Amino acid sequence: MTPLEQKNLGAFYTPPKIADFLTKWAIRSKKDRVLDPGSGEGIFMKSASTRFTKMNLDQKSVQRQIYGIEYDRLSYDQLAKEFRGFNVIHSSFFDVSPSTKPDGRTTLPYVDVVIGNPPYVERERLQGVDFIRKKIIESKYVELPLHLVTDVYGYFLIHATTFLKDGGRLAFIISDSWLNMDFGMALKQFLLSHYQIKAIVGFGERVFANALVRSVLILAEKSSSNQENYVKFIRLKNTDDIQKLNHILSTENQNSTSVMPINQSELNPREPWGVYLKASKSYFDIISKPIIVPLREIANIGIGIQSLKNDFYIVSEQKAKEFGLEKKFLSEVIMSPRDSPLVIEDKKEIHNFVIYCDKSHEEIKNTKLQDYIKKAEKAEASQRGKEKKIIGYQNIPRINQARRSPWYNMIPEIEKRCRGTIILPRRSFTRFFAVWNKARVVVNDNFINVEPKNPTHVLPLLAILNSSFFEYLCRVRSQTYGGGVYDLRPDDVKNMPAINLNAISKEKLEKLALAYRKFIESDGTDRSEIDSVMKDILNLKKSKWVKLAKEQDDLRLLASISNGRGKK
User: Fold this and answer.
1) Phi, psi at residue 201, to the nearest 5°?
2) Domains contained in the chain, number
3) Contact 334, 360 (CB under 8 A)
4) Is 196 inside any structural domain?
5) DSSP class of residue 437?
6) In the 8-state DSSP scheme, what is residue 361?
7) Tens of pLDDT along 181-199?
8) What pTM did the predictor assign?
9) Structural domain for 95, as ranges
10) How far apart (Å, rounded) are the C-alpha atoms in residues 318 and 396?
11) How far is it, in rounded angstroms, from Cα 241 to Cα 400?
């Protein structure tokens, strides 16, 4: 299978030791019927066959009790050849329905076990998504509206449930994005309503070397009663630690920082669940302090400018000279954390510009900017996620939907929300910092604007956002990708716990401001003064602060390991 075919199908094959663990956990009886809804190369079918054989089940019964579905023709042909005599179906999983009377093609029996690794298909590559959504919604299993950007594994999980008997077990390996992303809200509510979630297991390194997604194991029993169930959120260093899982799952009391048991009735689908795989009890103790409030209570939060077509709207210094663009029609824009100093003192430090013009064609007649715009209006333009190109940037649907007048005018958007006094990088690797945008340059969408509601709080808030504590919070609560990158969205930042600056003394505000000035004097290398003030405000013992520092180091190491640079 070529890399492109693999990407289109989302085919990333499961390591045998993970398939064996999931299969062993899910199959409890030699009478169990087992379904793998996306069989691929047959790793789960092979593992299930081995499991049944060790339970002394005869070969004919093994073949009758295992069902596999595969959509890709070549994979199906290989599967049917290797698993001759098994129930192998060539079909899209969503064209198959459960029935007590299988006809061997479009229906299957209800089963005791569903195991597998649903495809990791990028949403824009998902074929027939409208049909899939219609079928899932009609199943009436979903209580909250399914987000339009729901990943395909979410549809697999819901449809798989329709095949599962009450008390049956589901054991999947899927992307972890649903734990923190908006579309995961409906999936979390679905799981809470229809399963006793036994465990969610995360890894410190990538399970699939060629996929940038991070993966989790989900172990669940179909049940509408979950009041007394505790979900074990388990963090393993790597896939070799899979051997520890049986012991962890069978042990009632957990004193390990790698295991967080949470009463299922207390889990909120609207909250990020990824924190339970990263944080310790100390985290929850601190964020419950009265001095802690969501950042949105003390600052206005918003993403930087989204031009919708950077190759037109954003011009480098060199490109501006090449076209002779007039400076009065340009405004400095900070594009990347890599290009940003800790403090943007002077606009001259910035070497990229955004088109800054609200005048009509007639009003900019005989200017170089008009020539630049006319060229774009006749040029071939690509569309995001589509192969077909369009003539004229002004005809790109996303730009039309933005209702800019004229189409190249972004001034209202810029002045409304894109000159934040404080800016946070949306994505961080091992380095984390907040920037003082003292020169008030335009901020692009690689940053999130943080504007203190009280203008006198700028320096104290900069101290908080540059503290080790706030970095720890961001690393715990953000979405982490397989390359080790931590990704923050505006809503993540709005809900980030922060010290309530309105509730602390003037003396402590001054201490924060002074600590921040010492921090920038060190060029961002020494946080000790900020951290000392933060520890005092949070009223933390030295031992707890040291423990949090150790956890933060572990999270930084996790980024390095995920990226392939750290020690394992």
Assistant:
1) -115, 125
2) 2
3) no
4) yes
5) -
6) T
7) 888 888 999 999 999 999 9
8) 0.79
9) 3-278
10) 26
11) 52
